[in-house]
Structures are given as structure tokens and as C-alpha cells.
Amino acid sequence: MATTIVPGARQHGLPPGPRTQVHTAAATNESALARRALIGVALAYLFVFLGLPLYVVFQEAFRRGLAAYAAAISEPELLHALRLTLLVAAIAVPLNVLFGIAAAWAITKGRVRGRTLLIALADLPLAVSPVIAGLTFMLLFGMQGWFGPWLRAHDIRIAFTVTAVVLATIFVTLPFVARELIPLMEEQGVTEEEAAVTLGASGWQIFRRVTAPNIRWGLLYGIVLCNARAMGEFGAVSVVSGRIRGQTTTLPLHIEILYNEYDFTAAFAASSLLALLAVVTLAAKHLLERSHHAARARIIQEQEEKGS
Amino acid sequence: MTAPSIASDSRVGSTRGRSRGGSGRSVLPGVRLTLGFTIAYLTVLVIVPLSTLFARTARLGWSGFWDAATAPRALAAYTLSVGTSVVAAVVNGVFGLLVAWVLTRYRFTGRAIADALVDLPFALPTAVAGVALTTLYSQNGLIGALFAPHGIKIAFTPLGIAVALTFIGLPFVVRSVQPVLETLPKEIEEAAATLGADRWQTFRRVILPALTPALVAGMSLSFARAIGEYGSVVFISGNMPGRTEIAPLLIMSKLEQYDYGGATAIAVVMLLTSAVILVSAGLIQRRAARRAA
Q1: ipTM surpassing 0.90
Q2: B117/A142 CB distance under 8 A
Q3: CB of A104 within 8 A of CB of A182?
Q4: Are residues A37 and A122 in the same domain?
Q5: What is the chain B residue with the closest CA to A30?
Q6: By C-alpha distance, which of B8, B43, B39 is closest to A110?
Q7: Closest partner residue to B142 among A15, A52, A130, by Cβ?
Q8: pLDDT per residue as tens digits for the range A6-25
Q9: Which residues in chain A are closer than 8 Å to B114, comparing Cβ atoms?
Q10: pTM of the model
Q11: Of A137, A278, B77, B145, which has the fewest CB atoms closer than 10 Å, so is most exposed?
């Protein structure tokens, strides 16, 4: 087997890159006091800016006790918002997975022209404010929009419906899978797939048996990030949904409604569900990063061995 | 995790150079299909929606655009947006560098958790961040109550906006600087020490210049994210026109009044601002990289 395994360097969840040896020379290390002070300040900063907001969500959610919390999260409107959030993610994420795989395949395996432009376009939604993203869909489907008169003539409504919420969510989450897969598949090259072609494999067989095993961790990593954003999107969805209570309100929009009504227990109970999603996302991300980076390091090492 | 890939035996005799740089057409199936799908998807979901902004601006005409884009309320919103985003980017530059340094250079208990927590602003929905920060920094919140007796109000002031923007931009600098710090050869620090530099001189003269491109990249990403941010700010800002109304909020309130033209004009100004920032950051990075090399 040509496969080599990266020796134990990556077992502690360290980020990628060649590890430098631990140096003990005093000249290239800070004094113990400085070191402790730096760690202290950094941890205090992380605690105040990241730890406390997370803590306060659960503290406020449970402020009036477990019974009030249970009542708040079993409210019909909240459950409707939760179902809608799951539905939107269940449509947007698979579509963007399909897009991510197709784009990565065409760009990295197909050696197509204009690849830089395609990559830039696929990244563009990250650079656009969510509110502006929402605005563009209103300019398309709203009453004064491009398709507005036509839609009205045919009695089709898109603005302020679940359809618009789904479209806006697809837009903001579009880059996440593609931007994980493109660099990964680029590093892998096309030789394995080309060999499979000579052996008579079909396109789907090649993807399933050759490409998929190589990209699975990167793919899963992209899906986790895409899903977190899809379930949490607020600005873009806020614009296109019209915030029709009980109809187009996803969980983040429902939080806003409850908060503006000063129903803080309910607002934070709803928030706690999304905060839980964030914690699960972070844990999954952390675990996947290890496998993802180990797989990537292995590929790079293989390529280097063959190159030398 | 370490399972060998199925086809690794069949790659003998090929080289990476050929597989990457080859200019011949691919023999792999499905390229046309996937390329067609990619282009169609990007056209429908990215190109067409974004082109509406320019079409709507054209319909406004130059004077209509200028009036909407330079109204006093709009100017106040840009100033506030840019000002608070700059503050957030600078705070994140300083503390992001510190956090990246501590996470890559030192080993201590809780390091893995701290490292994972850095990504929280990416994972936590902005609305949740918004209500949590507002609760923390309002006058009777955990942090707000510490400042209130000194006459410092945080929530519902520009200071609160800067806090929210610092929160959402925090991961960018850390995640840009971390990989560079990891691969920085220890030898150059040893060389500096051998030449008599103390630790601080080594940091300022040797390490910092090598980190500058990544630092600038992280700060400009933090800025670009901050300038468009809506969810985490809408709760903490109080949304007073001319005082605590950032540009995305102004777009939102124009939309609520069905003033699509006005909203578009402000959106175009914002998009141009972030484009200018990202392009000039790219130039600064390239110059810093040349100087460090």
C-alpha cells in the first residue's frame, strides 16, 4: 500500500502544519511570569466575550425554573418556528451540498476555464451583508420587483412566504460546502479518478468509490457549518419573510418577536435551543477538524513522497 | 481516520505535477454536467439577485441615487457603521493576536476547549448573540451593572454596537494568524536571540512582521463582516436614527417603509465600502509579505 500515515503528530487536536519541537532554550521563550500573564489575559478575554454570552442564555432561560422553561419550549408557536427552521435547513443544506460537490468536481477534476471566476462567485455571498441579500430577493419577487407584476398576474406569491425564506437561506449558506471541498479535491488531483476511468468505471462509480472516501471528512465539515448557518440565519430571512407570526417566522425570528414583547423567559428558552445547536456544532467541528486535517496531511505527504 | 483509500495502489507512476498543472482536457466523466449545474445554480441564486441592485440603482438615476445615498440620516449611519467596525477590528487585532499566540505557543489545561470556543461567533446564531449581549451589557446585566455606577452606559449606545461587532469578528483574526504562527520557523527567533535581541525585540522586529499579512487579512475580514452585520446589533443598538442606527438597520427601516430605491442606494454604498476595504487590505498584505520576505 502506498498509503502512509502521519505519525502521531496530530493526536491532540492540534491545528495543521508542521509542528516545531518544544524548545527549552530560555532565549526563545518568555519568562514563566510573562507566560502566565499572557495566558491569563487571553483566557479572561475569551471568557468575558464568549463564555459569558453563552452562559447568560441558559441562565435567563432557566431563571423562572424548569417548569416555566418546559412550558416555554412546548408553546405551539415556538414549535411551529422550530419545525419551519428544520424544514428550511432540510431543503437548503442538501441543495448546497449538491452544488458544492458539483462545483468542486467541475472546477478541480474538469480543469475548466474561468475557475477563478467561479470560485469568486461561489464565495460572494459571504461578502454580502445578510440584509442586502434579503433586499436582492425583494427586488426580484417583491411587488415593485422584476418579477413582481408577472407573479401578481399569475397569482403567485413568493415574497413574505416560506419559499422566499428558503431562497434567502440557500443564498447565504451557498459557499460553505464548496469552499471546503474545492481546496481538498484540488490537492488530491485527478490521477486516482483517471485510473478508475481506464478500468472502466462509470462517473457515479468513480465518485462513490474513489472520490467520496477521500473527501468525506471535508464534506461533513462543510455540512456542519452550512447547517449551523441555515438554522441560525436572521438578517436575510428577516427581510424576505415579512415576519408573519406563526407562518414565516423561523426560530431566530421568533426569538426577536418574543424579546420585543418582553417575554424574556420564552425568548431565552427559544435561544437555548439554538445555543445548544451551536455547542453541538462546535464539538462536531472540533472532532471533524482532526479527521479532516489528518486526511489532508496524509494526501500532501503522499504527494510529496511521489514527487521526490 | 487513517483508513487507506481504495485506489491508492493504482497511482504508481503518476506525479502531482502532471495531475495539477496539466493543460489537457479532462477525461473524467460528468464534467459537462456538473459544470452546467454549477453555472446554472450560480446564475439563478447569485448573479441574478445581485444584478437587481445595479438595475435598481440605474432606475434611480444619478441624482436620485446621490440624494438617497447622501441624506443626513444615511451619512450618520455610514459614519457609525465604519467607526464601530474599525474599533471592533482593532480590538480583535490586538486580542486576536494574543489569543492566537497563547493557543499555539503554550500548553495549559483547558486549551482545547478555549480553542474550540473561539469559533462560537460562527456557530451561535446572531439573534441569540444579540439578545445575550444586550442582557449582559444593559444597565442591570452582569457586565453592564459594573459600569453603570460610573456613568458608563454600554447597551443602546455606540459602545454597545462596538461590543457586538467585536464579538462576531473575534474568530477571524485568531484563525488567520494561528496557522502562520504554527509554521513560523523557530530558527529565526533563535537567530535573533543569538544576535542579542531580547524577547520583546524579537517579537516586534522578527515575529510581528512575519505575522502582519495574516493579521491584516484577519482584521479586514472582521471589518467586512462587521460592516454588514445585522442580527447581533439590532437588539443592543436601540436603533435611534442618527445616533445608534448602523447602515444595515437603515436599509431595514427603508424596506419596512417600502422605500426600495433608498434601501438599494445605501446597499450599493456599503458594498463598495467593503470592496474597497478588502482590495486595499489585499494590497497591504502583499506589500507586507514582500517586506517580510
Answers
A1: no
A2: no
A3: yes
A4: no
A5: B199
A6: B39
A7: A52
A8: 333 333 444 444 444 444 45
A9: 42-43, 46
A10: 0.86
A11: B145
